[in-house]
Amino acid sequence: MSLIMLGDLRRRLDQRRGACALIAIKERLRCKTRLAEALAPAARVELVRSMLAAVLSAAGGARTVHQVIVVSPQRDSVPAHVPVLADTGESLNGALTQAHRVLREFGCGEVVILPADLPNISAADIDALVRAGRRAGFAIAPDTAGLGTNALCLVSPHSFRFQFGLRSLQLHLEEARCAGLNPQVVRLPGLAFDVDSPADLNRLDQQRWRARLQV
Q: End-to-end distance of the chain based on CA atoms, in angstroms?
């Protein structure tokens, strides 16, 4: 299931303790098709790669995270030092379930799930999410509309049924309660804002964001 050797990943996880960040992203040409009217295919791929770089940077700088892993059908622009677990592209929830199982088997009890389209995310945002998860066993960050899920943190040795899709916030809260967890909702601008539509693209301060990536 992997684009890396699982034995190498196990060794990495054995070396340190803390949260593992799973960053999910589809095949780049299949990302952000709802932006087709606003951006040409090449520009969409550039945007997707840039947002992924922002999320990777934030996760890499988070004090609570000791390992960053990408879940994707392809490596593409992911740096060589970041492990990539293969996703067949059939189901995001299925790919996350499989990756979560592998991490639990390797002894990682703290897992952060992040999408790759959070351009304003910061390391401090991720740390806040993980700390809330440590207090309650489960923390979740809603999208701007308060209906979807933009990030979640699981601190549990047990399996979890991911529910990304329509109205996933409520479904994830229900799933957490069924698992005996006490869900905490974390509302932070850097976790709430994602880019899914031309309106979101218009809200993105391109100059400020690009300058941030170059720091």
A: 34
